[in-house]
Amino acid sequence: MYDTKEKINSGQKNSKTQALRSKKKIAKKNRLSFMLIIFALLYLPALWNWIFHDSIDTEILNTGLLELRIPIEGAFVRQETVIKAPGEGIIIPKANQRERIPNKYTIAFMVDKNSRQTLERIDKMENEIIRHAIEESPVSIDGNSEFRNKVQNEVNKLSKPAINNTMESVMEIKSALEQLLSQRNKEIFNSKEDKLYLQNEKDELNKLKNQLSNNAVEIKADFSGLVIWDDLYDEKYDPAAMELLTPEELSLENIKDSKKVIQLKETDEYFTVKENQTIARLVNNEKTWFVCAIETKKAEQIKQNDILSLKLDGIDQRFPCTVETIQPAGDKSRIIISITRMVEETIHLRNVKADLIINSVKGLKIPSRSLTNINPYDNTADIILVRLNRAIYKRVKILAQQDSIAIINALPDSKETDPVRIFDMYVVNPQNISEGQVIE
User: Fold this and answer.
1) How far apart are CA 323 and CA 309, in angstroms?
2) Cα–Cα–Cα angle for 431, 433, 439, nearest 5°?
3) I need a surface site. Which of 177, 215, 343, 434 has the fewest CB within 10 A?
């Protein structure tokens, strides 16, 4: 009996002990969970910033210039006169390609076909005299720094057409190099520091040239301008007819022939012609026109007599130009602009792509993606600056936007004592950045 009571008492004690142990385990788990929650609240934000801090890209605000452009396609129109051969024979050019000549200047001679042997003999003698002159004084030839610099400048231009894959520019550079070489050969030929035997050869050569010129016909210019040796005159691109050019005729997609770029031939050698054959063009270098078609909505950004700039595809220069006329032509408008400076730099072009620069805006220059909360009605937006290692939102004025670039400035009527300014640090990508966030 007593044994039974002892067993019952012992079982009750064991159950109480197990219950106490269970309570202690639960309390321990609760304390551990509480400590983990406190740790998370205290240290996870810091851990988050430490892990993701490197993904926050920042830059320094700097001033810059943004050109507002309208992409266009069009054609050059020039005042030019066709020069024809007075008869059948051989033309001997006297003026170089693109050379600016005065009124009544003799640009070429024409001789009969029977003079070909004499011309070939003259060419051979000139080449021999130049070769002997170089052999006699190679140091003086190589020491011409001006010539070397000009050649180097043309060679340096080869990098851009290589990148842009434009063979037309390569041909233009080739033409310039050949012209430089021709000019150098003429200087060598006309040198007065010749040995006696070279001077005798020159005298004999001059006799042949005089005999040839006695039977030659002079071809003179009707007005001062640029001489272009080709037969590519097109009456469609005459100033009197340029207002008749349609948007389709001005689009490069519809230009199937090779007249986008005029291949200028060399003039070192004579060539055979027939009577009334076009041998050259005389182009007025005082003024040229560029006719283009622009979407009517974009054309509203410009007006007559505006002074703008034209940036031609493949050419770094900006050509000052004046808007002469704006004519509606369906859903597009025909724009005629005039150029009076650097006309000779465009002489080899006909139908080209270009950018019409309508304005240049200066201010704080940033990527457009760095702006957030953009208001298109008043052209304002937020930019996130970094000051004292914290993100600060600043409202700014958008002065201009083109492609992926924006020009901004502080709000004009803002009474802030610490507005956005040059050399401020800003966040490049404002997504998921909150006000006051630590950015180290």
Assistant:
1) 10
2) 130
3) 434
| CATH of segment(s) 58-64+362-427 | 2.40.420
- What is the pTM assigned to this prediction? 0.67
- Backbone φ and ψ for 154, nearest 5 degrees, come out as -70, -40
Nearest 10 degrees: Cα torsion 92, 98, 104, 110: 10
In terms of Cα–Cα distance, which of 247, 345, 343, 226 is closest to 291? 247
3-state secondary structure of 253: helix
Token pair in block for residue 96: 């170089």
Using CA atoms, how far apart are residues 206 and 413, in angstroms rounded to an integer? 80
d(CA 245, CA 73): 13
Q: Three-state DSSP class for 190?
A: coil
What CA–CA distance (Å, rounded) separates 313 from 354? 5
If residue 419 lies in a helix (H) or strand (E), which one and from where to where?
A: none
Q: What single-letter amino acid sits at 127?
A: N
Question: What would you report as the CA-atom Rg of the chain, rounded to the nearest whole angstrom?
Answer: 40
Q: For the chain, give the percent of residues with pLDDT over 70.
A: 69
CB atoms under 10 Å from CB of 55, counted, come to 8
228-to-83, 108, 214, 267 alpha-carbon distances in Å = 10, 12, 26, 10
CB 108 within 8 A of CB 216: no
Residues 6+ apart with CB under 8 A from 7: none
